[in-house]
Amino acid sequence: MENENTAKIISGKEVSAKIRGDLSRRCDAFREKTGRVPGLAVIRVGEDPASQVYVRNKLRACEEVGFYSEAHVLPENSTMEELLAEIEKLNRDPAIDGLLVQLPIPRHLDEKAAIAAVADEKDVDAFHKLDAGHLTLGDGNILPCTPSGIMEMLRYYGIPVAGRECVVVGRSNIVGRPMAALLLAADGTVTIAHSRTPDLPEVTRRADILVSAVGKAGLITADMVKPGAVVIDVGMNRNADGKLCGDADFEGVSKVASYITPVPGGVGPMTVTMLLANTMAAAEKKM
């Protein structure tokens, strides 16, 4: 991949707009066949400000493509029994095709138990153990939203994965591990790096495709990037001035990379869009 001094921008907004247009048309076709539209329900526990914003964005996205959506807000002091009862009620609701519990939930609640309680066929976050198993086997129908969104961006911009050295920095179950699995499924040669990786720059400099999903501003600097590499920045941080930024030093890295995702406007828009795509797939599976 040749570098022309300034990296090309991978616009999540542009890719997202195309996918949402396709979803809107699929929604119309689904309505004609079934007499209803796909439905998404989100459970939020407590009044975490960031969670409120995330849920609002998801409901707005549903409206944009023609889906039905519901937000169920439980008090901060809700018991585990009350949360599980709400999940079970929505598991049984035929109008709801996709169901998610907005994370984080209050610390006195069991996050793993809440995720496990969501019916597998409605788990559009793809956090369930069964979905993780399907992902590992390479036969998943519902894929984790952020990693699958990244794969869509690579496809849209014609960036090949097969035969490339791919380095994923971060090993969370939400991004790092599933990202590595999808890159491997696309025939990339994959390395997962993390906080205990010795000489991280030596590892990242091998990458043709570098994905950083750590959540640490300025972690990836220009000297850590192979000239001409593709840099996918999943980080969502605030710098010293309070400005939103990713894991990569955008100004420096963009002078070395061939492609780079900005923050904001890169990976972020794709996460909600792939949630919609998963909800559509879950609804179509019931047809």
Explain what you see.
- The chain has 287 residues and is α/β, with parallel strands linked by helices.
- Helix content is 41%, strand content 15%.
- It has 10 helices and 11 strands.
- A 6-stranded parallel β-sheet has the order 1-11-8-7-5-6. A 3-stranded parallel β-sheet has the order 3-2-4, with helices on both faces.
- A hairpin with a 5-residue loop joins strand 9 (237-238) and strand 10 (244-245).
- It is globular and about 50 Å long.
- The mean pLDDT is 95.
Q: If strands are numbered along the chain, what order do they take across the biggest sheet?
A: 1-11-8-7-5-6
Rg over CA atoms, rounded to whole Å, is: 19 Å
- Portion of residues in beta strands equals 15-25%
The end-to-end distance, rounded to whole angstroms, is: 44 Å
The biggest beta sheet is recorded as: 6 strands, parallel
- Count of helix runs: 10
DSSP strand tally: 11
Task: Point out poorly predicted stretches.
Answer: none
Would you list the SSEs in sequence order as H and E? EHEHEHEHHHEHEHEEEEHEH
The share of residues in helices is 40-55%
- Tell me, rounded to a whole number, the average pLDDT: 95
What structural class is derived from the secondary structure elements? alpha/beta
Form type: globular
Please summarize what this structure is.
This protein is of the alpha/beta class and 287 residues long.
Break the fold down into its secondary structure elements and pairings.
Blueprint: E1 8-9, H1 12-34, E2 39-45, H2 49-65, E3 68-74, H3 80-91, E4 98-101, H4 111-117, H5 129-137, H6 145-156, E5 165-169, H7 176-185, E6 189-193, H8 200-204, E7 209-212, E8 230-233, E9 237-238, E10 244-245, H9 250-253, E11 259-260, H10 267-285
Parallel strand pairs: 1-11, 2-3, 2-4, 5-6, 5-7, 7-8, 8-11
Antiparallel strand pairs: 9-10
Helix pairs in contact: 1-10, 2-10, 6-7, 6-10
